[in-house]
Amino acid sequence: MVKPPALLSRSPRRDPYRRGWLRGAPPPRWVRALPVALAAVVCVVTLLSPSPLDIGFLLGAIPPLAVLSYGPLTTALLGGVVVVLLSVPAFQLDHPGNTDLETVTFVAVLSVLLSYVRSRRDAQLDLARTVAEAAQRAVVPPLPERVGPVRCAGLYRAAQRGTLVGGDFFDVRRGPGGVRAVIGDVQGHGLAAVSTVAALLGSFREAVLDRPGLPEMVAALDRRLVVDSAEVRHAELFATAVLLEFSGDAGSVRIVTCGHPPPILLREGAATEIAVIPWTPLGLGLSDALPPHDGHIERLLPGDVLFLASDGVTEARNTDGTFYPLLDRLPLLADRDPAALADRVLADVLAHCGTIRDDVTMLVLTPGPPDPDRRADPDRTRTTRAP
């Protein structure tokens, strides 16, 4: 059992998964204000100067700047404003030897064309992103806030930027045998692993309904990967996973680990890694050789929290090669709402190592009695994804 150490000072770092301006997000306000601000500065400086200034060439940058933020109509309007400013005698910006009016007009017309092309391209990319996000969410849909007597919160950060699904997966489902959960990591990461993730989650959801116990579920997932590997030459697909099955009142949980880090039990301010006898990873074709027992049974008390994570968390290292001390940090981060624990852990991991190069998945399960206030709204979700 690990007792919470003294709180360490950690400087917050920017989340590298947040979609910025250069990755498809709308331009910031200062970029949109640049064309108008530049025109205002040139006009004010010219009017206040006692002698003519040769700064009219700066106005030629306004139409290209407008291309970054505006559509063709606004770009054409700003280009027209530039031409008018160069023609106003009070500014004296188009005297011989200063700005070439014909050149600026050509740049303005070219900027309108570029703005039209950019606007069409952005619309196509937005449509493609919307379709891709819908397809990826169909593979790994958001978790409900509660499944039966178990409160759920998940966090998913794919290693490949711009994607919602990678080589990790998790799900929580309710079936005839009770509430069952899975978290796993398949070979590889990024979009290349999505098909394997989809196959495993499909097998898990089916097994929840018709498999009597966790060993039978493990056999079904293992067989799925063996069959898929046989259909692709030199595929050799495999995955690690943890499967859990809660009792009807969530007073106990049965756990099976297949080469994956075991769950961590948070109880009374301490973090303990549950001692589970590991089974072989999925996809090796050894399901018939699995141990005859039904997995490890852990008794749960009110207030207990189960924390599960992929190796993207447990194997995250800083520049010195030091692994992220998950067991030491968890008690310090779990003193508030468990639903936000995964977000706090991710921020702490980023503070430790700066960047994460592997898929990051966390699953927080809080057993307890059913909440009658939430039965009327079963679709509320608690899953955090990459923006």
From TrEMBL:
Residue runs in coiled coils: none
Regions that span the bilayer: 30-49, 70-91
PPM-type phosphatase domain ranges (all copies): 150-367
Keywords linked to the UniProt accession: Hydrolase, Membrane, Transmembrane, Transmembrane helix
SMART domains the record matches: PP2C_SIG
Membrane among keywords: yes
Biased composition (Basic and acidic residues): 371-387
GO molecular function: protein serine/threonine phosphatase activity
A Pfam match: SpoIIE
Cited Gene3D superfamilies: PPM-type phosphatase domain
InterPro entries in the cross-refs: Bact_Sigma-Reg (IPR052016), PPM-type-like_dom_sf (IPR036457), PPM-type_phosphatase-like_dom (IPR001932)
Keyword Phosphoprotein: no
Region (Disordered), start-end ranges: 365-387
EC number: 3.1.3.16
Top-level EC class: hydrolase
Protein name as annotated: PP2C family protein-serine/threonine phosphatase
Species in which this protein is naturally found: Streptomyces andamanensis
